[in-house]
């Protein structure tokens, strides 16, 4: 069996981390994208993204390939919006929740402020799991990258090598 890294990234933070983790673990990478992109600049970014997250919206996703039977571990990565996973991840979780609760799940979140812990709790509740194999929280890793982030990612991956 193998590992999948499923992620959504608006500004490239989650993408950068997903690629790093996938390379370290030899995992497949599955990018989740909404059919209609969110605004990624200015006030509209925060208004539309925040509203969508708070309202629990589940945008239609572009087609993606995820065959849960191929994986024993699934790593889910996302930006935190209003203490919630970004809505495209919420759609994925809703579509896959029955198969995900049978897998070993790990999560990583990229945020500018805080709220990742609450987002992790929402995911546990949504897919019906009590704990994750590993959790990782990074603050704007693409724009505020530092050596400490590499150490955190390495530690996260070490927990998943079992």
TrEMBL record:
<dbReference type="GO" id="GO:0010181">
    <property type="term" value="F:FMN binding"/>
</dbReference>
<protein>
    <submittedName>
        <fullName>Flavodoxin</fullName>
    </submittedName>
</protein>
<feature type="domain" description="Flavodoxin-like">
    <location>
        <begin position="3"/>
        <end position="161"/>
    </location>
</feature>
<dbReference type="InterPro" id="IPR029039">
    <property type="entry name" value="Flavoprotein-like_sf"/>
</dbReference>
<dbReference type="Pfam" id="PF12682">
    <property type="entry name" value="Flavodoxin_4"/>
</dbReference>
<dbReference type="InterPro" id="IPR008254">
    <property type="entry name" value="Flavodoxin/NO_synth"/>
</dbReference>
<dbReference type="GO" id="GO:0016651">
    <property type="term" value="F:oxidoreductase activity, acting on NAD(P)H"/>
</dbReference>
